[in-house]
């Protein structure tokens, strides 16, 4: 096969790939390229729309940062992680009061309140608690404590 035939075959193969990727039903080169151009335009519009949606959601998130709370069940207690994207003076006290109400003793904890609020705590059920609480109850109680704290901090 000559060099010219090889180049022709390569172009033909690339056009077939382009036709396949763009879902074009065109047969000639010009129509395939026009379809590909339209397809690229549609993709650009989708990207712009998604970027706008992401920008809008980031603005609403930064104006009203939601807490991230995870609770894992351990052999004797729970691993509780709380994260908020802002500094939250007084929130630690509210969460610790909630632990006390639930009958959880804080066995170990790490807290950071510098630029954002982070808490990682291991809470074990104390001997006086016969209820038998689960991780979902702990998570809901922590979220309620954050909600109460948020309402009182807005009033100040």
Automatic annotation (TrEMBL):
Chief site of localization: nucleus
Matching InterPro entries: bHLH-TF_ACT-like_plant, TF_AMS/ICE1/BHLH6-like
Every Plant bHLH transcription factor ACT-like domain range: 68-146
GO cellular component terms, semicolon-separated: nucleus
Cross-referenced Pfam families: bHLH-TF_ACT-like_plant (PF22754)
GO BP, one annotated term: regulation of primary metabolic process
UniProt keywords, alphabetically: DNA-binding, Nucleus
Domain of life of the native organism: Eukaryota
Cell compartments where the protein resides: Nucleus
Protein name: Uncharacterized protein LOC18602264 isoform X2
Organism encoding this protein: Theobroma cacao (Cacao)
